[in-house]
């Protein structure tokens, strides 16, 4: 079998055989296919897509390219949650301990930042001492004892995806629906959870810019999961502007902790309740999302979610005192405001441009070898719908040096638009529960 012929076949939009796809995945893992040919294949898929049959085989081959985590000996329904990625999306840091405080078993595998979207692993590693490189024994022990653990993708779990994930980031192939679906679901299937809740972001700050593409991705990932024997829920949520106010790793950790204390931004708090509610229903801890939301709200009010977060951080080597002393977290050397250029109402904050500003501030990566400055990023002081005056600060920018701060200021200023009225969409745009797709809250 010849990789050049496989690339040409996909370039010409012809369907690949099971054997050809498995040959490609094996070549990725054993390094018999060089990066430049893997990149050519990824671009062909990005341009021409994949059939459902091709996608199913690709995902299965990626999931089986390494070890799988066996959680069957742990009592209860194990629930995983995954986001397709968005600017300022630190949801796992808050919703996982909230759900675990309700008695749910949360077994999660997460990745690093990809493109303009930050990664959960990067955010957690901003906590001094926090380890995401867990052994399988540690991972399962923490889950069994405390109901929550999170690990980074190891070399032995879906190694094909780890290689493809890194190359997609630097070859312009991040937004491909088949590649996103295969990447996410290969890790989910390998991680051993019984049920999976998917958060598909939609809008300027997400890889899926419109509702049709987001729903397509939701359907594809749901079908992959169900074929793998998982109970699936998928929700489509609004990402027309950065989520919450903080963008940047240590800054987002602070905001997640504030949320666990009941002091988080309204939009981020609402998303945590939405996702957490579906997680509790998926894990059969609640009969419906209304009941589930009340349970989640109670964990904030009684402090059990914050206590679960502290235990989670301590288990994985981090300093739990960060919940009381934010000064323990990394901080940036340079801080500067972004001033409003006019009077008016903020009508838009382009998420992708805001993500580019975070990368300029060194809070994200331009290439897979770039190092992140954990204290960098920005905090939005004005969001969509807010009225501002000329000269009023729109945001605070944090960067390691003046040059990075200046570039981030320029890019973030380009993300803002002003006018007389802002059209703000609801957080929940659509969802599926295995029976169908819903575009309103009637069934929810």
Describe the structure.
The protein has 444 residues and is α/β, with parallel strands linked by helices. It contains 16 helices and 14 strands. A seven-stranded mixed β-sheet has the order 3-2-1-4-5-13-14, sandwiched between helices. A four-stranded antiparallel β-sheet has the order 6-9-11-7, sandwiched between helices. Strand 4, helix 10 (211-227) and strand 5 form a beta-alpha-beta unit. Helix 4 runs parallel beside helix 9 (177-191). It is globular and about 65 Å long. It starts with a helix and ends in a 6-residue tail after the last strand. The relative contact order is 0.14.
Brief rundown of the structure:
Helix content is 44%, strand content 16%. The chain has 16 helices and 14 strands.
Question: Number of helix segments?
Answer: 16
* Uncertain ranges: none
Query: Main beta sheet, described?
Result: 7 strands, mixed
Element-level helix/strand string = HHHHEHEHHEHHEHEEHHHHEEHEEEHEEE
Please describe the topology of this protein.
Blueprint: H1 3-11, H2 18-30, H3 35-48, H4 52-63, E1 78-83, H5 91-101, E2 105-110, H6 120-124, H7 136-146, E3 148-152, H8 159-169, H9 177-191, E4 195-202, H10 211-227, E5 231-238, E6 246-247, H11 249-260, H12 266-282, H13 289-301, H14 304-315, E7 334-339, E8 344-349, H15 351-360, E9 377-380, E10 387-388, E11 393-399, H16 402-415, E12 416-419, E13 428-432, E14 437-438
Parallel strand pairs: 1-2, 1-4, 2-3, 4-5
Antiparallel strand pairs: 5-13, 6-9, 7-11, 8-10, 8-12, 9-11, 13-14
Helix pairs in contact: 1-3, 2-4, 2-8, 4-9, 5-11, 5-12, 5-14, 9-10, 12-13, 15-16
């Amino acid at each position: 079998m010849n990789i050049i012929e496989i690339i040409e076949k996909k370039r010409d939009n012809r369907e690949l055989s099971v054997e050809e796809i498995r040959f490609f995945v094996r070549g990725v893992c054993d390094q018999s296919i060089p990066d430049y040919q893997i990149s050519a294949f990824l671009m062909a898929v990005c341009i021409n897509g994949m059939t459902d049959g091709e996608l199913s085989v690709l995902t299965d081959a990626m999931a089986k390219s390494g070890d799988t985590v066996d959680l069957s000996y742990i009592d209860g329904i194990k629930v995983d949650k995954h986001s397709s990625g968005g600017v300022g999306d630190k949801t796992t840091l808050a919703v996982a301990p909230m759900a675990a405080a309700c008695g749910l078993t949360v077994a999660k595998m997460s990745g690093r930042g990809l493109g303009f979207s930050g990664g959960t692993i990067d955010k957690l590693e901003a906590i001094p001492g926090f380890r995401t490189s867990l052994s399988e024994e540690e991972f399962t022990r923490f889950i069994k004892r405390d109901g929550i653990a999170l690990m980074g993708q190891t070399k032995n779990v879906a190694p094909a995806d780890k290689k493809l994930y890194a190359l997609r980031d630097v070859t312009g192939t991040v937004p491909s629906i088949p590649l996103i679906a295969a990447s996410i679901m290969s890790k989910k299937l390998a991680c051993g959870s019984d049920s999976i809740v998917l958060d598909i972001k939609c809008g300027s700050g997400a890889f899926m810019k419109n509702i049709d593409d987001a729903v397509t991705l939701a359907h594809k990932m749901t079908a992959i999961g169900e074929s793998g024997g998982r109970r699936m829920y998928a929700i489509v949520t609004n990402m027309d502007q950065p989520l919450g106010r903080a963008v940047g790793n240590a800054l987002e950790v602070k905001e997640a902790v504030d949320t666990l204390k009941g002091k988080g931004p309204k939009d981020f708090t609402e998303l945590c309740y939405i996702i957490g509610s579906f997680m509790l229903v998926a894990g059969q801890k609640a009969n419906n999302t209304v009941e589930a939301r009340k349970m989640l709200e109670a964990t904030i009010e009684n402090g059990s979610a914050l206590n679960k977060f502290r235990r989670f951080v301590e288990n994985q080597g981090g300093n739990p005192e960060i919940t009381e002393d934010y000064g323990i977290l990394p901080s940036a050397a340079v801080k500067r405001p972004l001033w409003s250029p006019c009077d008016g109402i903020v009508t838009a904050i382009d998420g992708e441009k805001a993500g580019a500003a975070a990368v300029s501030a060194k809070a994200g990566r331009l290439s897979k070898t770039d190092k992140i400055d954990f204290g960098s990023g920005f905090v939005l002081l004005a969001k969509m719908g807010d009225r501002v005056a000329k000269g009023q600060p729109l945001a605070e920018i944090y960067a390691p040096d003046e040059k990075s701060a200046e570039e981030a200021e320029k890019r973030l200023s380009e993300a803002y638009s002003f006018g007389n009225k802002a059209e703000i969409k609801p957080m929940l745009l659509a969802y599926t529960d295995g029976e169908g797709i819903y575009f309103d809250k009637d069934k929810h």
